[in-house]
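Quick one:
INPUT:
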């Protein structure tokens, strides 16, 4: 028998009721499998259901139909086998960097000394050694997202879910964070699902790029990215890389243009 995939998603569908009482289907029978240690990026036009999709995987939203399994077990609610990194950092402003990273371990009752030691290692891993006693308001946006990532990794999740974590950063910081995320992933080898609007970001980071069609969302294409790892940022300037950008843009261009003229929020 073939090995059980780390993440199995079968026929996920989801609808929401609008303010006027109309029902909008956001996802329609989304199915895919992801192997342990894979880095999968998801792109698509605004409103195609990317955020709903990743929140269903985390157990924050219940699907209308279908199921999500991790290692063969059905997901019914959030759990320690998944870590979530949101678009905007969700740090506690009254807690230091170290105390923020410690939070999840404290909640799980891990002994303080061991938790502090592992948290300091993660702070070092994300490049923030020396900032353990700083508070969020003393950090740049990129630094806060590093803390956010360290906190998600602290509970040692099997699957890391990232919903546009770099969207609020300036262009230069975003590129640096992409490179740093790959370094961390190459060390920890977590299974990652990464939502983004930036096609070049998806291609640079991922083993596979899922292109979602919209209204309702569905897997329009599943594209394997062949570039060898580790990847330097310079790969983005190669003709082969640009070819993948053009290929994916061609798949979503019409829907992206239509989404610009719609007032429907991202779901």
């Amino acid at each position: 028998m073939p090995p059980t995939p780390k993440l199995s998603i079968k026929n996920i569908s989801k609808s929401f009721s609008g303010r006027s009482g109309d029902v909008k289907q956001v996802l329609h029978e989304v199915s895919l499998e992801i192997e342990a240690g894979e880095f999968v990026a998801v792109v698509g036009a605004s409103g195609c259901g990317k955020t709903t999709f990743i929140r269903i995987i985390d157990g924050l939203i219940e699907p209308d139909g279908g199921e999500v399994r991790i290692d063969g077990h059905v997901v019914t609610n959030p759990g320690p086998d998944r870590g979530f990194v949101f678009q905007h950092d969700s740090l506690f402003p009254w807690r230091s960097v170290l105390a923020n990273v410690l939070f999840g371990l404290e909640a799980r009752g891990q002994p303080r000394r061991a938790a502090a030691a592992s948290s300091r290692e993660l702070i070092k891993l994300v490049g923030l050694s020396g900032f353990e006693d700083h508070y969020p308001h003393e950090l740049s946006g990129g630094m806060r997202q590093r803390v956010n990532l360290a906190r998600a990794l602290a509970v040692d999740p099997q699957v890391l879910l990232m919903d546009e974590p770099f969207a609020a950063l300036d262009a230069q910081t975003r590129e640096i964070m992409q490179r740093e995320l790959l370094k961390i992933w190459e060390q920890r080898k977590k299974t990652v699902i990464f939502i983004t609007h930036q096609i070049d970001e998806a291609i640079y980071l991922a083993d596979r790029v899922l292109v979602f069609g919209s209204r309702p969302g569905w897997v329009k294409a599943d594209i394997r990215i062949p570039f060898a790892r580790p990847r330097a940022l310079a790969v983005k300037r190669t003709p082969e890389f640009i070819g993948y950008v053009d290929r994916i843009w061609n798949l979503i261009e019409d829907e992206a243009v239509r989404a610009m003229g719609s007032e429907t929020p991202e779901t």
